[in-house]
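AraC family transcriptional regulator with amidase-like domain (Dongia mobilis), 335 aa
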Amino acid sequence: MPNQTADPPHHIAFVVLPEFSNMGLALAIEPLFVANWLAQRQIFRWSILSLDGLSVRASNGMHLPVDGALGEIGTYRTVIVVASFNVKAHAEDQRLLNWLRRMARFGADMGAIETGSEILAAAHLLDGHPATVHWDNLEGFQERYPDVEAVTQLYTMGRGRMTCAGATTTLDMMLRWIAEQTDTGLADEVAQHFLMARQRPPHQEQNAPDTALGSVANQKVQQALGIMQKTTDEPLLCHEVAARVGLSERQLQRHFQRHVGMSMAQQYLQFRLAKAHKLLQQTDLPVTEVAISSGFGSLENFSRTYRRHFGCSPSADRQQSTTAPVFRHRTMGRG
């Protein structure tokens, strides 16, 4: 039987923004339900809010009914923003930002799933705090919010703030949060019901394609790839990269063909286009500045190369939506 003398449930508001991740929301709510079920009492309760009180379309096309609009339902001990695509537009919604600031002033802990961290950053609620940013949004986030310590670990938690990279890291973060709100024993039981043999620590790094380059077997190629990534704004000549790793250009080109599957120049261009793609979709930087930051000395050359790769001009690719062009990250060879 439920404990009638127990503390009132911890009330959580999930603020879901259009094109949010349905997976992220589910992995946040389901552990709360399982914790309540195991405890045989309502430790947690939650409300799902949208900007206008109407249903919200997820990135997968499903429409989610909500419990109300911002400001319509009670007070909350914790507020978690759930967002994924097209977050840049919502980061300028002053009504949303003001409501979040008000919740924080009233003492609510603030959290974010995936690009929800950008909303908290836009409200200046992450200034001076570490915040986890999904690897695909890191460069854009750092450009827009220099006062926030952007990190690529799985999740962060502390001083009334918690953020995660989304997807499966949402479950890791929520299990840790449940442990802090109740006890580790209950969180471990919840993890067992989710078939999680091991709960990942917050400081573990995301498996981003760029960091996964370290899995390339050849050490010289690893070093060269690292140099290329750090010099996308001022690309080196291929023989200069080779000299830095102690090989001739011909030797390093052979290693690239074997271990990466393309030439050095092709890989360099991939890094530069990836950077340009993120800056265009995730920031408001002028196209000319994006071109320079990506190592293109000529705007005409940048536009021509970008159009050839993405099928549109740089100026037509300024939204990170589900219908926008996608940059595919190749899996590096391991042989």
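The first strand starts at residue 10 and ends at 16. The chain has 13 helices and eleven strands. ok done for today
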